[in-house]
Amino acid sequence: MDTVSPVAPPHQEASSPQLKITSAKTLAESTNLASIPSHYAFTTPTSGDQAVHPDHDDSIPVIDFSLLSSSNPDQRCKAVSDLAKACEDWGIFMLINHGVPESQMKATVDALMGFFDLTEERKNEFQGKHLLDPIIYGTSFRASVDKVFLWRDFLKMMVYPKFHCPPEPEGMSEVLAEYTGKLRKLARELLKGVSESLGLGPGYIDEAMNIDSSLQILAANLYPPCPQPELAVGLPSHSDIGLLTILMQNDISGLQVHHGGKWVKVDPIPNAFVVNTADQLEIMSNGKYKSALHRAIVNNKTTRISIPFSTGPSLDTVVVPAEQLVDGKHNQATDISMNYKEYMEFKQSTVLHKGLCPNQVKI
Ligand code: OGA
Ligand code: NI
Q: What does the pLDDT read at residue 288?
């Protein structure tokens, strides 16, 4: 997620002083908005690299979580090998039968929608200054320095090891505490499966990444209807920074993944999560599981919300490739000798100063 996965609009040191920063939501709700302000228009329209629907015989993998946690060894074995294939071939998959109740998913979406419905004044109390501020509300990527704005507003909260959440709207904090508690368990189980799928023991990632004190971030991206969706960008191509991201979305399309040289649409499946591999998993797997490149486009009809939950190592973990996966010949990832906190800062500052595509920032 973008906290975690800075995006790539061109940046300049400071936006022009006359430019008043408005949220995408406020802008979208202003009457008679027939075209987007010029600072939202990307010079390379996304229409230049239109996404396709997945092929019939090569569609986005679906992983059944109930099989992955099955006590039947054959079922579990098959699920682990499906997981290996999904991570290696796509870096993204749909997760079904994950055990998180539909009512809880809906309550989470509603609570976060409720946050974006607060007044700008209220929301702006959470304008963070630093990457590691525990709660950040904003628009675009970093509106104070972005030269071209993204058509999205966002809220980001560190939810583990310590839980942070705005006090409003009423009840949101309880809903998100419960939801992120469920996702923490889910992520931990998934990482066991991922660990096994790499031929490591089920507890390898848990231990090597210090998952007990994992940095977990819950974010919400709001993409209001946009009058010129072909010119605007929701989130440009990027990879996420952690180990895995588990994303929930309302039933509006917009997410795309780079696969086989093309952008492929990741259309929502009701009640399923979208899970993608991220940078730290690429490093620890020695490049076996690449960090998935993805982006989000906008539409002119309906508000889309996406709610990514990122699980990383603990902030002080220096992630290195698992020894068993380093064979001397195929050493694809480098030992970066940076702890996770430094990696986050490094990735963010590189993007801000150079406007690089984040996947190029990945080492
Ligand atoms: C992110 C992200 C995708 C989406 O927040 O990092 O990739 O569909 N979001 O909004
Ligand atoms: Ni992302």
A: 95
DSSP string, 115-164: HHTS-HHHHHTT--SSTT-SEEEEETTTTTTBSS--S-EEEEEEEESS--
Percent of the chain, pLDDT > 70?
87
Residues 6+ apart with CB under 8 A from 146: 9, 11, 15, 140
Ligand 1 mutation target, pool 233, 247, 347, most atoms within 8 A of CB = 247
Q: Read off φ and ψ for residue 342, nearest 5 degrees.
A: -65, -35
| Dihedral over Cα of 314, 319, 324, 330: its sign | positive
Q: Which mutation among 245, 246, 347, 348 tests ligand 1's pocket best, with the greatest number of atoms within 8 A of CB? A: 245
Could you please report the per-residue DSSP string of 16-42?
-TT-----HHHHHHSTT--S--GGG--
pLDDT at residue 7 is higher than 90 = no
The ligand minimizing its distance to the Cα of 1 is: 1
**Residue 3: predicted pLDDT:** 41
Is 235 near ligand 1, meaning CB less than 6 Å away?
yes
Ligand 1 neighbourhood includes 282 CB (under 6 angstroms): no
Indicate the pairing of strand 92-96 with strand 62-64. Answer: parallel
Backbone angles phi, psi at 262, to 5 degrees: -130, 160
pLDDT higher than 50, residue 230: yes
Ligand sitting nearest the alpha carbon of 152:
1
pLDDT tens profile 68-91: 999 999 999 999 999 999 999 999
Q: Whose CA is nearest to atom 1 of ligand 1?
A: 1
pLDDT for residue 348: 82
Is there an atom of ligand 1 within 6 Å of 67 CB?
no
Element (H, E) at 258: strand 255-259
Q: Which amino acid is at 139?
A: T
Q: Work out the mean pLDDT of the chain and round it to a whole number.
A: 89
pTM equals 0.92
